[in-house]
Amino acid sequence: MPQDMPPAGGYEAVQYKRNLPTKGFRPATLLGIAGVIMGYGWYRVIKGLRERNELAREKMWARIHLIPALQAEEDRDLVRRHLADQAREKALLGDNIKVYHSDRYVRPTFAVVPEHTTE
């Protein structure tokens, strides 16, 4: 009985490696997607910072433009208090006494006095 021999040209190659399709994106694609997402995030952060700075600048200028009105209100209050203080002095002492030895106006300092004091 003759011995079996391989066919002429040999046998076909045996496939021992798995030929599975790759799942997911390639690394370069994933890096590109992550870069786009981070770029959009930075865009929003910078836009928010600029908006916050603009609001702070607007708030500061609003306060700067309010200063004359607030100063006028404070001046009116000081004049009212000064006239009331002079009237009180005139009622108590009969005459206004100069406290300072100058005709220059000295801005008064009013301390808060409690209503009910024990004596």
TrEMBL record:
Give the record's GO CC terms. Answer: mitochondrial inner membrane; respiratory chain complex I
Does the record bear Transport in its keywords?
yes
Q: Where does it reside?
A: Mitochondrion inner membrane
Entry-linked InterPro entries: GRIM-19 (IPR009346)
Q: What is its main location?
A: mitochondrion
Ordered alphabetically, the record's keywords are: Electron transport, Membrane, Mitochondrion, Mitochondrion inner membrane, Respiratory chain, Transmembrane, Transmembrane helix, Transport
Membrane topology per the entry is: Single-pass membrane protein
Q: Where are the transmembrane segments?
A: 24-43
Q: Which family does it belong to?
A: Belongs to the complex I NDUFA13 subunit family.
Q: What does this protein do?
A: Complex I functions in the transfer of electrons from NADH to the respiratory chain. Accessory subunit of the mitochondrial membrane respiratory chain NADH dehydrogenase (Complex I), that is believed not to be involved in catalysis.
- The protein's name is NADH dehydrogenase [ubiquinone] 1 alpha subcomplex subunit 13
